[in-house]
Specification:
Length: 105
């Protein structure tokens, strides 16, 4: 992974666990940034699908970035002010990098 190709800036965001309601469920809306990383966009596309409720477009983007411990599919990625949900986290090598497959939220 060459540093010159990491030309985009992304934020890894996570819902804070400290705010819970009376039933122990996390209160939505308390999202904090846990890391700001440099990344490379491998692929970005928008596809349109016909679903039961009608036509739906879906923006899919794949980022390649340096290794970050403790990432889960519950985290979010923010790029250029758009939030993306993680669909797959694929490690590159032995703790060298990550490939993040995301769908726009």
């Amino acid at each position: 992974m060459r540093a010159g190709k990491l030309d985009q800036k992304i934020e890894i965001r996570r819902q804070a666990d400290d705010a819970v309601d009376e039933y122990g469920n996390p209160i939505p809306g308390t999202i904090t940034t846990i890391a700001t990383l440099r990344a490379q966009i491998i692929q970005a596309s928008t596809e349109e699908f016909i679903r039961a409720w009608g036509a739906n477009s879906e923006t899919v983007i794949i980022f390649r970035t340096r290794w970050l411990d403790d990432m889960t599919l519950d985290d979010q990625v923010r790029h250029d002010g758009v939030d993306f949900n993680l669909k797959e986290i694929k490690p590159i090598g032995r703790r060298r990098g990550l490939e993040l497959r995301c769908v726009a939220a």
